[in-house]
Amino acid sequence: MQSQKKLTTNDIRQMKLEGKKITAVTAYDYPTAQLADRAGIDIVLIGDSLAMVVLGQDNTIPITMDEMIPFARAVSRGAKRALVVADMPFMSYNVNSEEAIRNAGRFLKEGRVDAVKLEGGIRFGSTVRAINEAGIQVMGHIGLTPQAASFTSGFRAQGKTADAAVKLMEDALVLQSAGAFSVVLELVPAEVARIVTEDAHIPTIGIGSGKYCDGQVIVIHDLLGLYDRFTPKFARQYVQLAPVIVKALQDYHDDVVGGRFPAEQHTLHLDKKEHQRLLRKRTKFRHSQ
Ligand code: KIV
Description:
By secondary structure, the protein is of the alpha/beta class. It folds into two domains: 9-240, TIM Barrel (Alpha-Beta Barrel), CATH 3.20.20; 244-288, no CATH class.
């Protein structure tokens, strides 16, 4: 098990300088955050993917700050070592910088997270700067940005031409100079991710963007095989937990129906004397009715 010293954004930056790979997973609750800590994961992200994989929505658009904060709080309670980052939901930072600062602040004060993440490049440079100047650490997210993809290009790879790749590079550098401590690169070609990673001073955290990024992030439901509606091609399923869970639930169901659960070892008994007294009281009680 890793030591319990809480990681900071400086530690994450330092890992890039030292050439150490950064590991990140999404987490939405207390036990998962604890397990991620035990596994030595560096960053836990309360992704707005929560809308889909936990709340069963079709995309990430509907989720609100009020819905996300209790999950963020639970994750923060569980993660004693990992840096905790909360994803700013759609329209929590898009209107203006004041609202963005207020909502980022809610994540810190109410959700007790260490940093926030928001989707978008150059267009959100001033927002990232404003949040950062308010004293809140920001992770950027460029390439495929699912909030925008829901309305525009769909869930397609980004940066597939030299011009588009240069634009991504500009996005990353604007976020860096606005004070972002790292940037997620989602679904961009490995060659592009490599160039961004080499030229940016802040760590790149890849998802579907190849091996050259400074770190990787994955939706935990994809990693554990817990979400059956859709698994992106780039996600590696390390275990298929869904059938394991269904089997346990079936066994429980069958044991209850078959009278095998609860068994003696799961049962609490009354002291013999108290039992006798209770039976006498019950007889008296019955006669008095
Ligand atoms: O919402 C999310 O889970 C994310 C990660 C996939 C980066 O943004």
